[in-house]
Each structure stands twice: as C-alpha cells, then as structure tokens.
Write a structure and sequence with these properties.
Helices cover 62% and strands 0% of the residues. By secondary structure, it is mostly helical.
Length: 74
Amino acid sequence: MTNLTKGYIATPINPKKGFRIHMLVFALTVPAIWLVWLLTPNTYAWPLWTTPAWAIGVLFHYLGVFVFKKSNNQ
C-alpha cells in the first residue's frame, strides 16, 4: 500500500481566520433563514431552534480560539 500523503506539505491552520469565517457565515445565513421563515406560511417559528443552536456553536468556537488557547509548548 502506498502512502497517499507522501510529498504533501501541511499548511498551518489559523484559528482566528477560521473563527472569522464561521462568524461571517453565521451573520449572513441567520437573517436569510429568518427571511425564508417570514416569506413562507409561518405557522411554527422553526428558526427559534436553529439560531440559538448555531449561536452556541459560534460561542464555543470563540471560546476555543480566544479564551482557552492551546499553548504551542505541549
């Protein structure tokens, strides 16, 4: 079996950039979700489940990147 990763150079991951992308996608998608709900027959407010759940994910991402930083001296 051959090593598929031979010759592959991994680039370092920038956690702050990853968080910024996550926050941008959240900030653009949540209003679109609410707009879809508003423009359809809104019998049940289903965005009330998706918005806080995703916000908790963004919060934990923030905490992982900025508050509970991993040290490079493991």
